[in-house]
Design the sequence.
């Protein structure tokens, strides 16, 4: 008689039971930030460095270039539209001193 190999069954993976503690999402804090203009500028620098180092294939260049152009245009428009907060010294009445 031939011996039958015993089937090895792996124990079922136990999934954590969802409790109020595990399903509750953390409250947003002031340290969590969204996407900033500086992040977009950094993305542009990353794309620039990647293309200079040859990390992007030739057939991907058109797509990457289009995204880069959109980022560049958006950053330029946003920085022009943002009012400058550094207007120099201001007197007590809110105007420029004479």
Sequence:
């Amino acid at each position: 008689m031939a011996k039958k190999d015993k089937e090895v069954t792996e124990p079922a993976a136990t999934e954590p039971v969802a409790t109020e503690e595990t399903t509750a999402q953390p409250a947003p804090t002031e340290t969590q930030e969204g996407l900033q203009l500086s992040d977009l500028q950094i993305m542009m620098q990353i794309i620039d460095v990647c293309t200079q180092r040859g990390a992007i294939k030739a057939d991907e260049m058109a797509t990457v270039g289009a995204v880069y152009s959109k980022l560049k245009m958006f950053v330029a428009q946003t920085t022009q539209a943002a009012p400058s907060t550094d207007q120099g010294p201001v007197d007590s009445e809110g105007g420029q001193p004479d």
About this structure: Helices lie at 20-23, 37-52, 61-81. The longest helix spans residues 61-81. DSSP finds three helices and no strands in the chain.
